[in-house]
UniProtKB/TrEMBL annotation, chains A, B:
Domain of life from the UniProt record: Archaea
Xref: PROSITE patterns: ATP_GRASP (PS50975)
GO molecular function, one term: ATP binding
SUPFAM superfamilies associated with the record: Glutathione synthetase ATP-binding domain-like, NAD(P)-binding Rossmann-fold domains, Succinyl-CoA synthetase domains
Record keyword ATP-binding present: yes
Protein EC: 6.2.1.13
Catalyzed reactions per annotation: acetate + ATP + CoA = acetyl-CoA + ADP + phosphate
Domain ATP-grasp: 490-526
Pfam (any one): Ligase_CoA_2
Protein name: acetate--CoA ligase (ADP-forming)
Entry keywords, A to Z: ATP-binding, Ligase, Nucleotide-binding
Length: 701, 701
């Protein structure tokens, strides 16, 4: 068990601000605690003698052995809440649940109060939930330290929510369904404990099989990825991260002051963390149900057994939309089906055992297909008929599922006929929907989690680089008091083993000529100046310059730059070997920093692919080799790297390594705020970074 | 009312094959008819005296005034069914519902029987449903001529299904919900009446407000588009067309023998027909509910009113995912909200009237936002709280919806608390879901239908073309006994006013030189032979030939062709002006014929866009000007036509006209089975068809 085990499984809970006053939050919490909690409840309120039959203490320090109180629930008004928390810390209470609102969510006074609260909590190393939380719940001990109307029923799903109202909604909804919970926490303002802490806690909790979350932001994306990666090896995490859309993000900002990181960073980060991200509340609970009720499949192959052709086709379409595939049966299965099913049945997948099928025929067909080595899971689709009892059908489905150990979902296509059948299936953890798309979607999610749980999180490779030289390049720029660097910083890439064209930035015609002679063929020459962004536009670039013309060209470039802006800082001229853009494929490799997730790498093909088709992919750095490799396949235009239209494929290994080396560079130097290698030319024989732009944050150097 | 009005509203119905035998279909139908049908039921069965209290007749001709029987329901075995249908026709019955199975769905004998049935039906001009149908239902007269277990409740939705089992499923499901129907038909094998007939019928039926369908194929796509286009001006059509995916299509083929047209043709055709195509059963009924219950909005702007921040953010995300947009309130609205809402409320959209809001506050906020001229619709999102009665909330929502005349959907986020509120909302036709994404999705569908109902179906333009010359080109090819034509058929395009490069196909060096001199600059020369597909590979193309070298080049090209294949048919050499591929944008414009929808036009950008990114769009021809124009915008790479990256935009009008002219050509000549103009080069000044390939079906000439 994790360090929050006493938060969810306390022996003693004190309510600071317990009250009898009708309609008060202090009363609601005390009542809820008294209703089902197995441990001891203590009431603290200096203005009352007794609350709901409990002796009232003047302060937390007054209670008998205050250090053995496991959780203090704070409900007092905001101006005295911080004091109450401090007192709790002083007497040695480890867990504090702050229900009180009026902190960071209410403007600058509240924000100051929240800073104070955070300092106190840190001073006493408190596990603090909230402030502005609905509270916490844990079913094994009947703990309901919330001011909601409902207590959860026991189950193996733990749930965290950045919206207290959503917790009440879910509990109200769950009360008439077979949805049980282990722990529930309303995160509130997340002053101390946040999503990462609860994920870590529930990852170690043997009674939590599935973690659900509703989040509007993630406080520390990098830490969340680290934690969730490990947890999701054994325990699935299903999240609604709202504020996905621009409109949603600005609504979230005004709701909780959630600072909107980029949606692309969340998308990449949550995927890298191994979470299943869903877009609707319906999916959140559909996924929770199947993940907690069914075993993981050992493959993607699904068998469909139905008594109705049309719904069988709909189900097959749903399979086509998913990452699952229709199982191809073995000859043995066909033989058995041929022997046991009526002649008019369709023994091919989807198996249509036709309209006069009673439950026994479903049983026989299911047993046959679930025994097939090519079948990893099954969906049963049944329409109501005169000869079929949904109740009997449910029983045979449960039996066959349990006997085979494979996951099964059902579509009993009816309403009033479904009744008892639904109950039997729910008891056995088998999902049941009217719409076959939902049944298939659930099995698809189960399979997606299987893939996550099996993926091996490889550590990012560490290449042998010249970190010192890179630091010098950045510090050099810093001394020139500039934040925007261009090709003059190509040495940075060189230091990290990213291939750059032969050449250098020089500050005299003579040096330019020397470099050109070293290169020994026509060169490219570019003016280097932080003040000139669009070099080509002012004639600052010359291509194909023969060595003998390099001196004159140097002078020309400088004159043009001066003509454009007389006081421009001219760092010199870049003399570079020519890169054959014709045979190479132009790619772009970049990075910017996300406020929540840190360095975000971007990869795509250059030109129209980035600018018009916006065909790029992102990952949170540092990336491992498989992650870097996946970036190359993620873009729509990936076939162009793989040798589409008769071209030779580019040097994939070199490209993947370059992504990893850039990942290492931006991870090593937080001072690099933004960076673009554009183009990074990829050929069958390697890659070359042809141009570079980056932005520095000097304070981080 | 349409010609099927007596099918759905008969005075007299005869059951041919009525029976008392337990578990028989003849009994089920007779019982169902006797249960609720207001008209007269007649029983025909030569082997019985009486069935369920009805006198039995030996044959349909024996009944009293057989010509006044409106519907004959045929349940007799397949080998005598056709005879029963013929007798029905002979006595003057107009409508026949064939329940009997054992026709086209069961192999070659059945197919022969179905052909016979079709001949008889056509001879007597019967409105024939089926065979292999579950039957028909119509609630106004209580008509249940099916062998299912449930009778529909009355409503304004009419429903057709190519799966009888799905009808039974939907009725069972609807029985415990507030879902009512006007007519229901199980289409069966669609020997005579098909989806197009029912769409036409219900389009004229004042009691049908929404048409729903489950289809596995469409018999005559072109006719369906024509009919549905008109109907959807006033009556929405919502369809599940299954067999969308490859897997689904092959399952559909094995289920009903549905001949799979291409999914792309269905996608385009159903969109051009103005139908709302949905992918799941859930959407089918969600859309039906809102379309039948709520008025159409006058815009896309939605207001969100909620008592809970988090769910408000989720709802905003759903809006972001949809084609709707968050309404921006007028200053007046802000002022009113500021005055009437508590200070802690968020008066910006989504409007958060906070957790202590009773129903009255919802009422006041709703009234304010629905009165805002910038608001076209609203969604109410409520979490359960101690101070809010969902029942009262439902009442104020209904009142405000009705008062404003704007569409409203709701998300009462709860389960057991929702109860009575749900009922009140359903009575008023207001959708209510736990998941805000479904509420928003429904309003989005309503808006999509509003756009469909407002779109003006423009007739395709008819250009002044030289049809006779085009026919001669095609017949010329036919005389040469070839089905595959290339550039030698460019005259075909010319005849239809599609610009082609200056030049011609000639069969002597002298003529070649004459053409080149006429062009007056360097030319392109290509060998023309139906036997040589890849001309470039054998040296059959020369680019940039100066006029003085044209004679020699002609000879060279012929020699190379002979060397490649000594007996190749050589039609001559094409001498063509050079088209500047550098400044132009290569597009591709093609056509193939779909078995259901006929000529399908395809447009896209050439090269990698077609081959690697598969970025193309299709439409069923003939296309109107707006449809042709939409094709240009549909592709991902559309910005490249519009002048992305500093290029001049191509001549859009010329490109649109070319699409329309090709549409006219392929509509005029069914003999053209396939055609590709690739490339069709588009420049800022016009378009030029540079190369052509087409395939002929000589029998159609």
């Amino acid at each position: 068990m994790g360090r929050l085990s006493t938060l969810f499984g306390p022996e003693r809970v004190a309510v600071i601000g317990a009250s009898e006053s009708e309609g008060s939050v202090g009363r609601a919490i005390t009542e809820n605690l008294l209703a089902s909690y197995e441990g001891e409840v203590l009431a603290v309120n200096p203005n009352a003698e007794e609350v709901l039959g409990l002796t009232c203490y003047d302060g937390i320090a007054e209670v008998d052995s205050p250090g053995t109180v496991d959780v203090a629930v704070v409900v007092v008004p905001p101006h005295i809440a911080v004091d109450a928390i401090r007192q709790s810390g002083e007497v040695g209470i480890e867990n504090v649940v702050v229900i009180t609102a009026g902190f960071g969510e209410t403007g600058s006074d509240g924000a100051a109060r929240e800073r104070e609260l955070r300092e106190v909590a840190e001073e006493y190393d408190l596990n603090l939930v909230g402030p502005n939380s609905l509270g916490v719940m844990s079913t094994p001990k009947g703990l309901n330290a919330t001011f909601g109307n409902e207590m959860a029923t026991e189950g193996d799903v733990s749930f965290m929510s950045q919206s207290g109202a959503f917790v009440t909604a879910v509990l109200d909804w769950a009360a008439e369904r077979d949805v049980g919970f282990k722990d529930i926490v309303s995160l509130g303002n997340k002053a101390i404990l946040d999503e990462g802490d609860f994920v870590a806690e529930w990852g170690e909790d043997p009674d939590t099989d599935v973690i659900l979350g509703y989040l509007e932001d993630i406080d520390d994306g990098e830490e969340f990825i680290r934690t969730a990666r490990e947890v999701t090896q054994d325990t699935p995490i299903v999240l609604v991260k709202s504020g996905r859309t621009d409109a949603g993000a600005s609504a979230a900002a005004s709701h909780t002051g959630a600072m909107a990181g980029s949606e692309r960073a969340y998308e990449a980060g949550l995927e890298q963390a191994g979470t299943l991200r869903v877009e609707s509340v319906q999916e959140l609970f559909d996924y929770a149900q199947i993940l907690s009720g069914q075993p993981l499949p050992d493959g993607e192959e699904i068998a469909i057994v139905t008594n109705a052709g049309g719904p069988g086709v709909m189900t097959t379409d749903a399979v086509g939309d998913s990452d699952l595939s229709l199982a191809e049966f073995t000859d043995e299965t066909f033989e058995t089906l041929r022997e046991t099913m009526p002649e008019a049945a369709n023994i091919y997948n989807p198996v249509d055992i036709i309209g006069d099928a009673p439950a026994e025929r479903f049983e026989s067909a299911l047993e046959t297909v679930l025994a097939d080595e090519n079948v990893s899971m099954a969906v049963v689709v049944a329409c109501p008929t005169a000869v079929l009892s949904f109740e009997e059908l449910a029983e045979v489905v449960v039996e066959q599922q349990q006997q085979s150990g494979l996951p099964v979902a059902t579509t009993l296509m009816g309403g009033k006929s479904v009744g008892a059948g639904q109950e039997i299936l729910a008891q056995a953890g088998i999902p049941q929907y009217f719409d076959p798309a939902r049944a298939v979607g659930s099995l698809d999610a189960l399979t997606e989690y299987r893939n996550i749980s099996e993926r091996e999180f490889q550590a990012p490779d560490t290449f042998d680089v010249d970190r010192e030289r890179a630091r010098e390049v950045l510090q050099g720029a810093s001394r020139r008091d500039t934040n925007r660097l261009g090709v003059e910083a190509m040495e940075l890439l060189d230091a990290y083993g990213i291939p750059t064209p032969q050449g250098d930035v020089v500050d005299s015609p003579g040096d330019a000529e020397a470099i050109a002679e070293e290169i020994g063929e026509d060169v490219v020459m570019k003016i280097v100046s932080p003040d000139i962004l669009h070099k080509s536009d002012i004639g600052g670039v010359e291509v194909g310059v023969p060595p003998e013309e390099v001196r004159d060209t140097y002078e020309d470039l400088v004159v043009r730059a001066r003509n454009y802006q007389s006081d421009a800082t001219i760092l010199g001229v870049q003399v570079q070997e020519m890169v054959d853009l014709e045979t190479g494929t132009e790619t772009i490799l970049g990075m910017n920093r996300d406020p929540q997730f840190g360095p975000l790498l971007l990869f795509g093909l250059g030109g129209i692919f980035v600018e018009v088709l916006e065909d790029t992919t992102v990952r949170v750095a540092p990336v491992s080799e498989p992650e870097a490799s996946a970036m190359l396949d993620d873009i729509e235009s990936a076939p162009l790297l793989q040798g589409a239209r008769g071209r030779e494929p580019v040097d994939r290994a070199a490209l993947v390594e370059t992504v990893q080396r850039l990942s290492q560079l931006v991870t090593d130097f937080p001072a690099i705020v933004e960076l673009d290698i554009n183009p990074l030319v990829a050929t069958p024989d390697g890659v070359t970074a042809v141009d570079l732009r980056l932005t520095l944050d000097q304070e981080e150097l």
